[in-house]
Write a structure and sequence with these properties.
The complex is a heterodimer of chains A (about 350) and B (about 250).
Chain A lengths: L1 H18 L7 E7 L4 H11 L4 E6 L3 H9 L5 E5 L3 H7 L4 E7 L3 H24 L16 E7 L6 H32 L1 H6 L5 H29 L9 H25 L3 H17 L12 H6 L4 H15 L3 H25 L6
Parallel strand pairs in A: 1-2, 1-3, 4-5
Antiparallel strand pairs in A: 3-4
Helix pairs in contact in A: 1-10, 6-8, 6-9, 6-10, 6-12, 8-9, 9-10, 9-12, 9-13, 12-13
Chain B lengths: L4 E12 L2 E12 L3 E6 L5 H8 L7 E6 L2 E2 L4 H7 E4 L11 H11 L4 H14 L15 H13 L5 E5 L7 H16 L3 E6 L2 H4 L4 E6 L2 E6 L1 H7 L5 H20 L1
Parallel strand pairs in B: 3-8, 3-9, 6-7, 7-8
Antiparallel strand pairs in B: 1-2, 1-4, 4-5, 9-10
Classes of the chains: A alpha/beta (about 350), B alpha/beta (about 250).
Amino acid sequence: MLAISLGVPVVQLLLLGLAVSTDVEHVPTVISDMDNSVTSRSLVSKLENTRYLDIQYRTTDLQEVSSLLQEGETILSVTIPSAFERDIVRGQQPRISLSADAQNTNVALTGAGYVRRIILSWVQQQTKSGTSYISAPSVLTNTIDIQSRISFNPQLKSTWYMVPGIMVLLVTIITIILTAMAIVREREIGTLEQLMVSPITRIEFILGKTLPFLILGMMELSIALLVIRTVYHVPIEGSLPLFLGISILFIFCTLGIGIFVSTIATTQQQALFTAWFILMFCILMSGLFLPLENMPKILYNLTYINPLRYFISIVRDLFLKGAGLHELWKNILALAVIGFVVMSAAITRFHKKME
Amino acid sequence: MNNGNVIEAQNLTRKFGNFTAVDSVTFSVGKGEVFGFLGANGAGKSTTIRMLTGILTPTGGKGSVAGFDIIREQEKIRRNIGYMSQKFSLYEDLTVEENLAFYGGIYGMSSKEMSSARKRLYERLNMGDIRRRLAGSIPLGWKQRTSLACAIQHNPRILFLDEPTGGVDPLSRRAFWDIIYDLSESGITVFVTTHYMDEAEYCGRISIMHAGKIITIGNPTVLKKEYRKKTIEDVFIYLVSNADVQTNQSNN
C-alpha cells in the first residue's frame, strides 16, 4: 500500500498534467467542397493545415453532413457552395455555411471562431499575393459571407451541456464508492468472514451488495432528472425509457468497478483512496470538463476504457439531439462490453476465501 | 466417516510465502467432544480453524469435517457447521433479532423455523431482554451471546469457536462455558480455540500449539499428571519454553 500511496500521485500528475488542457484544438470538422475549383481547394488546404481543426470527413453529400453532426462524429461542418470561384471572380459574395454542434458551447464557439479567422486570413493572403480573381482588397471582409448555424443548443446555454454531465458524475461517485466501502466494511467488522463460512454463494453475496446501490443510483438519477427539468429546463429530446435502460447498464459498470476496488482494498481507507483514483481518471477523461480531442494520443486511447466517456456522450446526444438507438448503439455496445469485462473481473477476483 | 470422528486433520499445512503458519498438524475430534485448541497469539490456531471451515486452502496435507473433504467439499461442510469468530461479527446497525433473522435467512431457514429457533435461544441464552436492542449498543458479553446464537440457530453438527471469550468478563465467560457444555451434551461437537489456560480445563481434550506445530494433545487431567504440573497453564509454559529451547539449539 505504501507503493500505491506514493506511486498514485506521480501517475496522476503525469496523466492528468497532460490531459488537463482547456485549450480548444483539433475540433472535429467535416468539409463539403461543392465547388472543387482551384480557389476552393486552396481554402480547404488552408483549413486543413491548422492544429485548431481536425478535418475528419470530406463529402459533398449534404445528407451525410447533417447525419455526421447528428451522431456527434463532428462538431463543425464547413460547406463551400458550388459557384464559389465564379462568384468571387465576379465580385459576388459567395456564402460559406458553417454549422456548429453547440452542445459544448465553448468548443462550438471557439471552433466557429477559428473557421472564421482562417477564412479571413485566407482572403487576406489571396489579396496580398495579388491573385487576380480577388480584385477588391478594400472590401476584404465582404468578399465572403459566412453564415453560421448553431444546432442542438441554439441559445448557447452551457448549463444544458454541463448539468446532465454533473448528474452522471454524482451517480458514478455514489455507486462506485458506496459499493466498495460496503464490502470492505464487512471485511473490517468480520461479517464477511462470517458469510464466507455460510452456504451463501458468491453471486448471492454480490447481488445482495450491489442491488441496493443500483436502486439507490436509479433513485438519485430520477431526482436529478426532476431538478434538471424544473430548475435548468434542459430539454430531454430523446426517449426517457431508453435513457433509464442505458443508465442501468452504466450503473452495472460502476458497481463492477466498486466490487473490483473492494477486492484490492482491505480497509475502508484503502478503498476510498483507490476509488478516488479511479474516479479522478474517469471524470477528467470523460470529455465533460476537458475536450477529449486535445489530449495526447496515448491518453486519448486510454479514454476508450472509460465508461463515463460513453455515458456522458450518450446522455448529451439523447437529451439535446434526441438521439435514439440508431445513433447511440456504438456507445451502448461499448458500455455493455466494459460492464461485462469489469464485472467478470470483479467476480473472478472476489473469492469466498481469505487469501 | 471413520471411527466416529467428525473432524480429521492429517499433516495439515499452510504457508504464507516463506512463513509456515501451520506446520503439518495431525489430530482428530470425535462426535460430541469439546476440543480445545490452545496456543499463544500467532501460534496458528485461527489459520487451522480457517482451513477446517473452508475459507483458507491448505498448502499441504488433508482433512475432513463432518465427513466432507475440506478442499473439495467446502460447500457441503458449510451447511453442517456453525462458526463464531473473535470479532463477534454482528451487523451493529441491526437489532439482535434482525441479526438472527439475517443469518437464519443465509442458512435458508424458513420464518417458522427461525421464530421457533429464536424462542428457544432467547430462553437458553437468557437474552430475551436485548432482542430489540441494536447490536452495536449492547455490552460485549451480550454481543458474544448474540454471536453464539447466530452461529447455532441453524442446528449445526459442529461448532467452531475462534477465541469466543476474548475481552469478555469472567462471569460472562463462565456463563458462556455452561452453554458450551449444554451444546456438547445435546450431541454438537465443539472445536474451540483459546489462549485462556483456565478455559482449557473445561475441555474434554486439548491440543497445545506452538509456532505452527502441535506439541501435545490429550485430556487436561491426564496431561497434568503426565507432566507433573498443577495446572494446564504450568503444562503450557513448560512445553512452550522447552520447544523454544529446542528450536534455539537446532538453530545454533
